[in-house]
Amino acid sequence: MISINLGLLEKTVVLFSICILFYSTHGDGKPLGKRAINEVQLMHNLGVHKHAELRQDWLQMKLREIHTASEKNNEGKTGLLSDIIPNLKDLNPREAEDIIAVLEKLMNPS
């Protein structure tokens, strides 16, 4: 064993250093005192803000996935009547009369 001759001042400094080292490593990152109320409120507001931001990001992602029927139906159509109504040449007279009757009923609901 090595013999070290230390004076009273050196022993005090070594002991004090060991105590500081011991207490600084066993703090576990916990605050030494209680948090102030404004600090607690700030942390709460930060959590609420982060939650709202995550919710908005999720909603934006879901809105990008939505495809409306009007967008699908209007692609490539010019809006002309011949494009909207299918070819009517293949209808027999009875089907044409039924279609006209339905259209007249829609035009005059009374």
From TrEMBL:
<keyword id="KW-0165">Cleavage on pair of basic residues</keyword>
<dbReference type="GO" id="GO:0005179">
    <property type="term" value="F:hormone activity"/>
</dbReference>
<feature type="signal peptide">
    <location>
        <begin position="1"/>
        <end position="29"/>
    </location>
</feature>
<comment type="similarity">
    <text>Belongs to the parathyroid hormone family.</text>
</comment>
<comment type="function">
    <text>Parathyroid hormone elevates calcium level by dissolving the salts in bone and preventing their renal excretion. Acts by binding to its receptor, PTH1R, activating G protein-coupled receptor signaling. Stimulates [1-14C]-2-deoxy-D-glucose (2DG) transport and glycogen synthesis in osteoblastic cells.</text>
</comment>
<dbReference type="Pfam" id="PF01279">
    <property type="entry name" value="Parathyroid"/>
</dbReference>
<dbReference type="GO" id="GO:0006874">
    <property type="term" value="P:intracellular calcium ion homeostasis"/>
</dbReference>
<keyword id="KW-0732">Signal</keyword>
<dbReference type="InterPro" id="IPR001415">
    <property type="entry name" value="PTH/PTH-rel"/>
</dbReference>
<comment type="subunit">
    <text>Interacts with PTH1R (via N-terminal extracellular domain).</text>
</comment>
<protein>
    <recommendedName>
        <fullName>Parathyroid hormone</fullName>
    </recommendedName>
</protein>
<keyword id="KW-0964">Secreted</keyword>
<dbReference type="GO" id="GO:0005576">
    <property type="term" value="C:extracellular region"/>
</dbReference>
<dbReference type="InterPro" id="IPR003625">
    <property type="entry name" value="PTH"/>
</dbReference>
<keyword id="KW-0372">Hormone</keyword>
